Amino acid sequence: MTHVVAHRGYPTVAPENTLPAFAAALRAGATIVEFDVRCTRDGVPVVIHDRTVNRTTNGSGRVWDLTADQIAGLDAGSWFGPGFTGLRVPTLAETLDLLAPSAAELLVEIKPPATLDEVKSVVAALAERDLLDRAVLQSFDADVVRKVRDVAPEVRRGLLLFRFDAETVELSRELGVVYCNPSVDDVLHGPETMAALAAAGVAVMPWTPNDMAQWRPLVDAGAAGLITDLVGELTGWLNA
Ligand code: G3P
Ligand code: CA
């Protein structure tokens, strides 16, 4: 089975990393929902991709310079379209509350920098809702992945990378990750690394194949799932 991994929810039908985008992803058949977590100045995990709120809200400034109350006061929908005016940047807690009743797994990307306490607060939010078994915590920053391992060794981990070679395999082993998620091009042009990761028991889910012509080659290359914006389209393609 190939996983349909909803990248920031279903961001072609609703603003990325918002509750309507996650609800739409579930309706469209996502088997895994991916989202991005950063912490506010006062240590509240919120779900937002960029370092700043500038692109996806009507505010400005870096997430870690703003309080949770300040971020809660921003409009995270108008930039996407008039029908989404008034949407908020969700907290991690709100996101997990929405996703918890579903059957989907959670691919939680912790954006660096993340302190040990911040990693602990992400793990705590999952634990409070009994979601640790359904979650994979991933990051582009190996140090963040190490923190996850230190805080909650029982929770599955993933590594995101901009490189895909023998060192990737070695780092994946060292970190004990279940997923190593590289770019589409890396998967399509790295058969040796794909084979070595498979031999090490590490699955691969590339980001972010939004060109449907990429799907067949990626599945044939051994991808366990595709992290895409085209959630409903991928579900339909897999079920055709
Ligand atoms: O899960 C992989 C993918 O989300 C990584 O890239 O920039 O969309 O967070 P980005
Ligand atoms: Ca992400």
UniProtKB/TrEMBL annotation:
Gene3D superfamilies (alphabetical): Phosphatidylinositol (PI) phosphodiesterase
PROSITE patterns, alphabetized: GP_PDE, PIPLC_X_DOMAIN
Matches recorded under InterPro entries: GP_PDE_dom, PLC-like_Pdiesterase_TIM-brl
Residue ranges occupied by any GP-PDE domain in the UniProt entry: 2-238
PANTHER family per record: GLYCEROPHOSPHODIESTER PHOSPHODIESTERASE, CYTOPLASMIC, GLYCEROPHOSPHORYL DIESTER PHOSPHODIESTERASE
Name of the protein described by the UniProt record: Glycerophosphodiester phosphodiesterase
